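Lecture notes, unit on protein representations.

Consider one protein chain, 334 amino acids long.
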Amino acid sequence: MSASADPLLRVEGLRTWFPIKQGLFQRTTGHVQAVTDVAFEVAAGSTLALVGESGCGKTTAGRSILRLTPAQAGRVLFDGVDLMALDEAALRPYRREIQIIFQDPMASLNPRMRVRDSVAEGMRSFDIGADEAERTRRVEELFKRVQLDPAHIWRYPHEFSGGQRQRICIARALAVEPRLIVCDEAVSALDVSIQAQILNLLGDLQKELGIAYLFITHDLGVVRYLADRVAVMYLGRIVESGSTERIFADPQHPYTRALLAAAPSVDPDRRGGAPPVLGDVPSPSDPPPGCPFHPRCPEVLERCRTEAPPEVALAEGRVRCFLAESAGTAAGGD
């Protein structure tokens, strides 16, 4: 977690489980434990990368923060206000403050709407701009800001490339002047060269506008130069967090080391630096006892099979692993 005393976003004990219903009467027979006791902070104007394999619960966590997916427990404090405690009317102003950019820009844009109307939709909803002419001028300015030709605002989504469509989605998020943007795998569907361009654009916009990002991704490599802090998620839980510098230089959890080793790199010192993890990710509907990572861990201890590791506070960051106990002290919670 961030050391900030007054973060823009603070998530505490977030839990989102989905019921498993079976039989004629659809009785609940179990739960998919998508997100369990997740906690982190995002400081104003900074970037936290939430990283993990597909199915680890990171997207559900992001959607739960936005209340697009209902959470069963926890608090989401935005500027000190618990969004989970608000009704829809009270929540509405915060919809403008927090925006989201999804993975698939084509699916995010209405194919029957000109992109000008898609970008201006939020402005209209929140009464931004005196009239449609002013909103059109704002859309043109946003196109310039995301490095698109403002003459193309009247085109349809299919007339743009994938990278251009993602820039349009960024412009749409910026249109309502948010303070936090959740980027849900926002570059994973793009070619590597286009990924770099979008990441550079997001970085430039952050410097210019002071926006905070919660950057959700499965690839640690793409966030090294964008994120200030990293939280590594496995099977619904955050297993390690800390500054990007510390995570890359001195990862403490075997899962973090495996993710780093798997990330593409031109640096031979960073290739093959950790033994591979074993097998597949267990089902979140039937997580293993003890440490949830122990069935796949190449460094597993006997106690890992039956005991849940405590959270250990490091000099910089936190980790849930028995192997790291000598490097820090047990903490009371996230």
